[in-house]
Amino acid sequence: MENKKSLKIKKGIILWNKAKKIIPGGTQLLSKRSEMFLPEQWPSYFKKAKGCEVWDLDGNKYIDMYSMGIGSCILGYADPDVNKAVKKAIDEGSMCTLNTPEEVELAELLLKLHPWAEKVRYARTGGEAMAVAVRIARVKSQKDKVAFCGYHGWHDWYLASNLADDKNLDGQLMPGLEPKEVCGG
Prior knowledge:
This protein folds into 2 domains: 11-79, Aspartate Aminotransferase, domain 1; 96-169, no CATH class. It is built from 6 helices and 3 strands, in the order αβββααααα. The chain has helices spanning 11-22, 68-71, 80-92, 101-113, 126-141, 156-161, and strands at 46-50, 53-56, 61-63. A 3-stranded antiparallel β-sheet has the order 1-2-3, with no helix packed on it. Strand 2 (53-56) and strand 3 (61-63) form a beta hairpin. It starts with 10 loop residues before the first helix and ends in a 24-residue tail after the last helix. The mean pLDDT is 83.
């Protein structure tokens, strides 16, 4: 018979309940809401992450088989090569009034990987990237309608396209949040 270790999850739940009082939805990323997983049983916060392993605030160790930082961490957490490069960039100054030459280097690599593209445009967030993509598609196609599926952020174009039925945004917005003032709504 397998010996099952009982997890003690306390600190994360306490902090999550505190967060919900001062951060709408408890987190800046709606897809990380504890209520989506195991309400009042989800650890919510991590103390350490390395490779594919994550330790919560109570010291419990997990294997992240869900999303690896919402799909943005394909090399695993705390990859030594990535950490070394990031620390070097921080030591040399990671922000400046001038542009970084790596911006051009990355653009060249992206154009090489995607020869159909003519130019590269960077965005700071996924929502911003979706808004830019929709704008480019509308200009290029000279059409107003955009076909899409799934969640694409809080931008007016996305919310407005889902207002035909009150239930279209169920599960995608926080309970009680109404998309008021979207397209004159």
